UniProtKB/TrEMBL annotation:
Keywords: Signal. Residues 1-24 form the signal peptide. Residues 38-92 form the SH3b domain. It comes from the Bacteria. Transmembrane segments: none annotated. This is SH3 domain-containing protein. It comes from Enterovirga rhinocerotis. The keyword Lyase does not apply.
Amino acid sequence: MIHRALLGALSGAALLLAAGAASAQTFCYVSDPTGTPLNIRIEPNGRVVGVIANGTQVTISESRRDERGRLWVFVRNLDTNQGIGWVYRNFLNC
C-alpha cells in the first residue's frame, strides 16, 4: 500500500515538473553588434529574405550548424509564435 501511494505521488510530481518545463518559455533579444538590423534567412547561411530590429524578442525553435561550423537558429515571434526565419545565433542575447 505504501509503495503504491509513493509511486502515485512521484508520478504526480514528475507530471507537474514536465508541465512546468513545457510552459516555461525561453526568450532572446536580437542583439546584432554591427548596429544594423539582423538578416533573416530562408535557411542557415542562405539567401536573405528580410531583417529584424535589435531589441526584438524572439524564441528559438530549431538550430543547425553550417558547413563552417557556425550555429544558426530558427526564431519565432515571442507573442504570436509565428515563424520568422533563420538567424546567426551569436547575434542573439538569451
